Amino acid sequence: MVCATTFExxxxxxxxxxxxxxxxxxxLDRLSLDIGPGVTGLVGxxxxxxxxxxxxxLGLSPATEGTAAVLxxxxxxxxxxxxxQVGYMPxxxxxxxxxxxxxxxxxMARMSGLPPTAARERTxxxxxxxxxxxxxxxxxxxxxxxxxxxxxxxxxxxxxxxLVLLDEPTNGLDPVGRDEMLGLIRRVYTDFGISVLVTSHxxxxxxxxxxxxxxxxxxxxxxxxxxxxxxxxxxxLAVEVTDSDAHPDGTRxxxxxxxxxxxxxxxxxxxxxxxxGHILLVxxxxxxxxxxxxxxxxxxxxxxVRMEQRRHRIAEVFRAGTGTDAHAASDAEAARExxxxxxxxxxxxxxx
Length: 352
Fold this sequence. Notes:
single chain, six-stranded mixed beta sheet, disordered N terminus, 24% strand, alpha/beta, four-stranded antiparallel beta sheet
């Protein structure tokens, strides 16, 4: 029997020692999770078991052993009831090309039990929410990849579920489309109060979107914690300065002055704003470090662009765990780095 408690005493998804074995592959290996309301990211390399977990949670695939519950309903005995209250956005495109978005989403709403009038009204509202209202009567076959992803999101939301399961919703999208989709996903919870479980192999996506992150690899749980725990403030100051006539390289001058004053700097900084120098990472030993930086900058006669506590990127947490330099990658690289590359492992069991 699954027994779990989250904040506000509400459990959205709970599993206990959940396993799924195939003849040659163990997709899930004694996985125990406790997920509450909000936007939760499930991250893992291709083949880590993400899609298999979703199929089990929907009651579409039986577990080999262990238990799972969704919205308090046992997946082994209440699959139909779960699917009435849960929306699902599949990873792969299975949309009919010769019907419009309106026709398709209305059909899915009717399949979910909505009466005709309510189905049409909900469809119009949902397509407006995902940004397809102006294109709602065009055949889906003429849609771009981003528009098709929005149709899939709309059909998952149209029956006003309590929870939506989104399987790799940014697949195939360019950076702009990816950012727009992530914004839509965040609004699903903030605007409508619908909890979200979103899978991805891109760590940076989850950092910007999710309240909680669950990391799996090879079907096993590596870590489950709030995003703020992953990206907690470190005892490092990010300092960015400008150049001056007296110091054409303000960053270098500040680095040398701080080092001479006994401050500890990380070996490698990061690119700053265009034309605004570079970022120095200074170890903060106390309030006196702030005073030292301020006074040193003033003494050099250069401009201080910013001085702030630096937060980890999720990708850097894993780099630190593998012994690589946590500051070696830029923010852009960390935001898009695949989980498989960060972990330097992960199988090729696509579709598991």
